[in-house]
Amino acid sequence: MNMNMNMNNLSEKHEEILEAIWVMAERKESSIESIRQKCVVDFSETDIEYIDSKGLIVRDGKRILFSKEGRIFTEKIIRRQRLAKVLLHSILKLRNSQMEELACKIEHTLLPEVEESICTLLGHPDVCPNGDPIPRGKCCGTMIDKVERVLMGLSELLPGESGKVAYIRPDNHAQLHQLISFGLNPGVIVTVHMTSPAFCIKFENTELALDDEIVKNIFVLKRKTFLK
Description:
Largest sheet: 6 strands, antiparallel
Helix content: 40-55%
Number of helices: 11
Shape: elongated
Order of helices and strands: HHHHEEHHHHEEHEEEHEH
Structural class: alpha+beta
Radius of gyration: 20 Å
CATH class of the largest domain: Mainly Beta
Number of strands: 8
Distance between the termini: 48 Å
Number of domains: 3
CATH superfamily of the largest domain: Ferrous iron transport protein A (FeoA)
Strand content: 15-25%
CATH topology of the largest domain: SH3 type barrels
């Protein structure tokens, strides 16, 4: 199957349907009802049949599953969308409602070479602001650093250096909620107080010692970026 030729006739509507199938699959759901509820556009049985005719999905009763080709194709759409969310949220500081709307527009027009540049610019993030995983790209496998990174790990800051929290990777939800309860939210400016014997940060009126496992899951904007 020639993937590029086969996908030329897919509309944005069909791509939105594939996105909904992907998101529900992440949630271990595959029924047509759950996909319909998640999808941002209304679709008919004809739309599903059209996607099926492209070899992107497999019908299993009332369940809709990806074919191998469908998973590969949709993974690229999801990657573009979630990278766009990181860009819009972390760099352009858009609110969630604006972020979602613009990300949906950007994902349909983002060229592969631009996508890699954005990913590199952002430091190859692995989750978007909503906490959803970002599929890895070729640039992530080699950790290409062709352009200066805007995002960096909190652990990369030296004592006395500051950064604005861009996102916290939710590996452990209990730890995440604990950090939020302390006031360590995206947007907060933190200054590294010391890195040894414990990693301590200061923000607002709080000084906090963090375990190494937590530190590696916090990502910040470089100070010179958010001071511009």
